[in-house]
Amino acid sequence: MKNILHSIAEKLRPLVEERKRSCPLDGFTTPPPARSLRGAMPGVIAELKKASPSKGLIRADFRPVELARELEAAGAAALSVLTEPNYFLGSTEYLKRVAPAVAIPCLRKDFVFDEYQLREAREYGASAVLLIAALLDQKTLVRLAETARAFGLDVLGEAHDADEVRRLLDSPATLIGVNARDLKTFSTDLGRVEKLLSLVPPERCPVAESAIACSADMKSLREAGAQGFLIGETLMRAEHPGEALRRLLA
Predict the structure, then answer these.
(1) Residue 31: CB partners within 8 Å, gap ≥ 6?
(2) Which one is catalytic: 47, 120, 194, 233?
């Protein structure tokens, strides 16, 4: 798991350093207060994702603003915008364009390891950021979560096992997500997610992530304690993502 996460982060690091040089913090404005991702729950966090390391290209016809508006109209409580460029073909430009085009919160989904990425997310309209426990040691996880909260951002902490859930519970993460994907094998297991969700108290807003394909999956996960549902591939592979989301919510 850590190998792929750290490989992604290391390839991303030079790009973050370049953005620091080309767009330093003193050039950022003070954006208006962020909308609350935590306050938008319970509901679906619909993901705008063009590609992934495990599945390759997912949606060739990727028009983020049109997709964002379609998913908002279909009942998405929030949006997750991939900004990692190398493996997910994401971009901070997507976040800059999507956030002002919708009235619902936007999560910046990326591999965050630097405080600059948090300030950047806030500048470009994000309401929340993803922090992956497996990528960060506990001191860094807590520091980044505290900094994000100071910037007015909610934090969705991501766990893959019980130890990572416990680490997130010992951090200021606003929401705690459990990812169904095993990043060593790329296989998914919603049964494991259901077990891990039971470790997250309701006040920490448990979120089920990945491999949600139908309304029956959502029902089982909701019964296991999930308040949020981060859904990407199922929506992005659909010809009409809004219709696919309505079916999930039915």
Answers:
(1) 122, 123, 125
(2) 47
Cβ pair 133, 167 in contact under 8 A: yes
Average confidence (pLDDT) over 228-247? 97
Which one has a higher pLDDT value, 187 or 160?
A: 160
Residue 96 designated active-site: no
Q: Which fold has domain 2-24+39-249?
A: TIM Barrel (3.20.20)
pLDDT band at residue 3 under the 50/70/90 scheme: low
Is 209 labeled as catalytic in the residue annotation?
A: yes
Average pLDDT over residues 117-140: 97
Respond yes or no: is residue 80 known to be catalytic. no
Q: What is the pTM (predicted TM-score) of this model?
A: 0.95
Give CA–CA dist 153/140, Å, rounded: 17
pLDDT at 29: 85
Res. 151: pLDDT tops 90: yes
Decide the pairing of beta strands 51-52 and 56-57: antiparallel
Q: Which of 49, 50, 70, 72 is catalytic?
A: 49
Say which of 72, 158, 194, 233 is annotated catalytic.
158
Task: Verify whether residue 109 is a known catalytic residue.
Answer: yes
- pLDDT at 1 exceeding the cut of 70: no
